[in-house]
């Protein structure tokens, strides 16, 4: 029995040594050695002379840059595990978190690493970046359907704002949470109003005001006049008075818009005879970037019957930007009097909203006739 126990101990010791050799090599390398590996990684520059037609140069260049970026992140991780308090580590950690967040979408990894760092070293030299990336990764982790938690989305942002009240990142992250991650529209609207009130001169306040327009102008006239990109005919809300109008903000490059178009066609076929119209507001890029060609090809391929307002500047287009449209598809509904009735209507709720407005219109018409 003693012999067997001794053999077990020797085996366990051997496994520890092997594990250290395989995964714990950072303990055997100095800061200078690791930094040497990092500094020897040179990002290849773009060479216009190699970017010729029918070559894969750009793809190969991007792949090489990605490889180097990921290798740098790996080496910075080694540096952090071995020498977390070294100044070189503190300087480089934000780069690692940015790579993990933006390039790898490793939100759980960023959240775990920043939380661990802030717990063990609350006064870390790059703590500001740690709090910021903690908040950003928490938003991504806790906005998923399987783990949605509004409080866990907001709390890290509030902690960042408490610590760094003068940072422009605070209101920007609040806007990000309200616009893209929170599911309760009332909660989002409250945050938009707070941004405008507390940070009135910030960029976040500027876009929050546009978002608030979707709420504050319900019941007010919705103005839109344009030339149909397909037929060349003039179209306006005024010319469609009496109809319930679906305003569909979309782009040909959006997979979600591709998914929605069949539903819109079904609604159009069903409700057009009852006085429902659809207007497409397109966010494809400029004609120079073949945006108009993409719109026309999409309309032809999907046999779309309703008029299209081609803005021509993608996300920078003035009309959609003025309404705070920052995700696609986005659907508004205008009532028969030309007033904005609903905004940011989900695909699942659209038919109900349209049906209710038809009933109200018809009921109003019947009452007027009876009178």
Structure description:
This protein is α/β, with parallel strands linked by helices and 371 residues long. The chain has two domains: 17-45 and 56-216, Serine Threonine Protein Phosphatase 5, Tetratricopeptide repeat (Alpha Horseshoe), CATH 1.25.40; 225-370, Glutaredoxin (3-Layer(aba) Sandwich), CATH 3.40.30. Helix content is 58%, strand content 8%. Strands 5-4-3-6-7 form a five-stranded mixed sheet, covered by helices on one side. Strands 1-2 form a two-stranded antiparallel sheet. Helix 12 links the parallel strand 4 (276-282) and strand 5 (308-310). It is globular, with a radius of gyration of 28 Å.
Concise synopsis of the structure shown:
This protein is an alpha/beta fold and 371 residues long. The chain has helices at residues 2-23, 31-39, 57-82, 87-103, 107-120, 127-142, 150-163, 169-181, 185-198, 203-216, 255-271, 291-302, 318-322, 347-370, and strands at 225-227, 234-236, 244-250, 276-282, 308-310, 330-334, 340-342.
Helix content: 55-70%
Task: Write down how many β-strands occur, each being a DSSP E stretch of 2 or more residues.
Answer: 7
Number of domains: 2
Distance, first to last CA: 104 Å
Order of helices and strands: HHHHHHHHHHEEEHEHEHEEH
Runs with pLDDT <50, length 5+?
1-26
* CATH class assignment of the largest domain: Mainly Alpha
**Coarse morphology:** globular
CATH fold naming of the largest domain: Serine Threonine Protein Phosphatase 5, Tetratricopeptide repeat
Mean pLDDT: 91
Q: Using only CA atoms, what is the Rg? A: 28 Å
Quaternary structure classification:
single chain
CATH architecture assignment name of the largest domain: Alpha Horseshoe
Q: Give the biggest sheet.
A: 5 strands, mixed
Structural class: alpha/beta
**How many H/I helices?**
14
């Amino acid at each position: 029995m003693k012999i067997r126990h001794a053999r077990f101990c020797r085996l366990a010791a051997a496994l520890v040594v092997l594990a250290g050799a395989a995964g714990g090599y950072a303990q055997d390398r100095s800061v200078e050695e690791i930094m040497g590996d990092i500094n020897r990684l040179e990002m290849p520059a773009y060479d216009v002379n190699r970017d010729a037609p029918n070559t894969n140069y750009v793809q190969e260049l991007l792949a090489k840059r990605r490889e180097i970026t990921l290798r740098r992140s790996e080496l910075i991780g080694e540096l952090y595990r071995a020498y977390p308090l070294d100044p070189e580590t503190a300087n480089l950690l934000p780069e690692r978190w940015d790579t993990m967040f933006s390039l790898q979408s490793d939100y759980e990894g960023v959240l775990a690493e920043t939380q661990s760092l802030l717990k063990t070293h609350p006064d870390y030299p790059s703590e500001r970046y740690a709090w910021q990336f903690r908040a950003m990764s928490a938003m991504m982790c806790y906005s998923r359907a399987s783990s949605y938690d509004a409080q866990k989305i907001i709390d890290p942002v509030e902690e960042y704002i408490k610590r760094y009240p003068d940072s422009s990142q605070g209101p920007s992250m609040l806007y990000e949470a309200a616009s893209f991650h929170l599911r309760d529209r009332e909660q989002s609207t409250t945050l938009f109003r707070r941004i405008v009130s507390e940070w009135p001169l910030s960029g976040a306040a500027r876009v929050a005001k546009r978002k608030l327009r979707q709420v504050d102008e319900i019941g007010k006239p919705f103005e839109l006049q344009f030339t149909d990109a397909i037929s060349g005919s003039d179209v306006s809300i005024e010319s469609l008075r009496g109809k319930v109008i679906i305003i569909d903000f979309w782009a040909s490059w959006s997979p979600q818009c591709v998914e929605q178009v069949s539903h819109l066609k079904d609604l159009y076929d069903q409700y057009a005879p009852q006085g429902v119209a659809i207007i497409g507001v397109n966010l494809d890029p400029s004609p120079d970037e073949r945006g108009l060609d993409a719109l026309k090809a999409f309309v032809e391929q999907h046999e779309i019957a309703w008029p299209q307002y081609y803005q021509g500047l993608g996300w920078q287009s003035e009309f959609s930007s003025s309404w705070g449209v920052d995700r696609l598809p986005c659907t508004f509904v205008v009532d028969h009097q030309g007033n904005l009735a609903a905004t940011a209507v989900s695909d699942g709720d659209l038919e109900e909203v349209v049906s209710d407005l038809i009933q109200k219109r018809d009921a109003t018409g019947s009452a007027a006739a009876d009178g």
